[in-house]
Amino acid sequence: MKIILSFIFLLNVVGVNAQLKNFADCKNAQLLNIAKDGLIGVFPKPVGPGELIEISDTKKSAYYFEKEHNTSWFKFGTLTANKFVFEIIPESPTDDFDFILFKVDPKTDVCEQIKLKKNIPLRTNIARGDTSYHGKTGLKLNAENDFKTSGKGNPYSSYIDIKPSEVYYLVIDKYKASEFGFSINLNYEKEILISGKIVDETKKSMQAEISLSDENGREIYKAMTDKKGYYEIKTAIKTNKNYLLTAYNDSSFIESKTINTNELKKTPKAYENISMVLPKLKKGQKYVVSNFNFYGNSAELLGESVPIQHNLFKLMSKNKNLKIVIEGHVNGPNSPNTQEFKELSKLRSETVYNYLISKGIAANRMSKEWFGNSKMLFPTTKDEIEMSMNRRVEIKVVEF
Q: Global pTM?
């Protein structure tokens, strides 16, 4: 199984005005340290090209931007043999960032070699993507080109294979000055195979829509199973992050499963041959929706739970006679059912109710109930997973 190594950079910004100019030159490239906790490094706005001009007079080159405008230089070393990707994310989605990535020999005068064009870039991207990219650029596993010249196009270049003890220089250039900075978002990823079958409660095969969403609720994969209910997903996901696999059918209730690479350490084929059961919609039936959970002490849905809310909306839209009760619950083991708990469970039921109202579902098709901590799935919790499962909403079908 392939591992895509991504680097997470964290800059401690002190003396910002001095530092803005400080790493605008190659010789003062900011040293980036590999982090293992999935942090995102946030960097201040680049101001000008610095005191030295390392890149210039490069019109119509596939390897370089024409000249430096507002630059930031970085350097980093590698620890393992992997596939390297990264993403530059502007604070303002209208900003346009370009980049050049060099592999260097630290025993030479690196910056002079770059200036004299004796060190040819490994990857360059000067393209400007459409608005759907929100100004982002970087390296990706599925990008087709190593180099992208100026003009409209894919703002992502293809990944590179790295080995231990290599040194790289990255220069990021913003064409027009603005008040906003950027972040570099990198992480470990793995290519993963997810496969299985969708059945109803009688174990009969059924066709369904399968989707995979990341920890922020962003859908990264969607497809239909075949007529016998079988599906197979091959994709790359970040390590140590929860993804949500969701199955949906117009006449059945929603089912979901958490996908996390940690499980693969215990069982390498943990996500192959997964059977998911979609129960038929029935009047009077209460459905405990897996992963329909909230942040602690909050009425905000977990990012990974957002797709379930959307699928509930689709279910309500497709089934015009469907009426439901939205039940709110909290986590509060070994505590009395206080007014505070009851109010929080009410707010959680209202979160889902208000979302459905905003999407056009009629109010007379829904009602709300809230129970505080009186109906916890785990009255005595032993870990964060069980506490998270207590912070939930449940759906009861009143009419169908």
A: 0.67
